[in-house]
Amino acid sequence: MSWTATARYGLEPAPGGLAFVQDLLNTLSAGKPRESDLLQTAEGARAWLDQALKSWSGVSHRPAPGIELTAEDVQGLRDFRHDLGQSLHAQLGDSATEVGPAASLMTLPTALRLDEHGAVHAEPRGTGWRQVASLALIEVYQAQCTDTLRRLKACRNTRCLVAFYDRSRNNSGVWDDVHVCGNAANLRNYRARKRAGADQV
């Protein structure tokens, strides 16, 4: 599957449909050097969504919903992405990030469908950005049920902030790339401790 937003940061996608959520978060202008915001224009948002829905269909083994994004939907989708990112910080207990109320996350339509095999599927409803958000929240909910959501994290390097899936055994990762973001953070902390020590002399 090709998760274009996540792949541009050189990251492995999260398992299953959670990769859709990760990819949505990674449409943000982030990384070092900064990549462009894939939701900056309606054309860019549609191109990202078309590919992301194909990839989602491949991992979920279900047909992708037909979602039409208008130019007016783009701001709503960016707002939802922001709120979703904030909630990710909140569930990690990241005190470095101030998390406010996420109005767009409060109520989004979803339908439950019983298929011919007796399995229940949640399906997104609404139109435009609300349908994208509904699909993303379905995947967030399913990841909560399987206890995998806690492994979807935002890089703690505030100059990066990409969404990565922590595959460490004890779920202790805080940087998407320990050699880049981790080393940079450790170097800043080391210099701060040196300055603090020099001030005390």
From TrEMBL:
PANTHER family: BLL6575 PROTEIN. It comes from the Bacteria. Residues 151-194 form the Zinc finger CGNR domain. It comes from Streptomyces mirabilis. Gene3D superfamilies: Jann2411-like domain (1.10.3300.10). Pfam families: ABATE, zf-CGNR. This is CGNR zinc finger domain-containing protein. InterPro entries: ABATE (IPR010852), ABATE_dom_sf (IPR023286), Znf_CGNR (IPR021005). SUPFAM superfamilies: Jann2411-like (SSF160904).
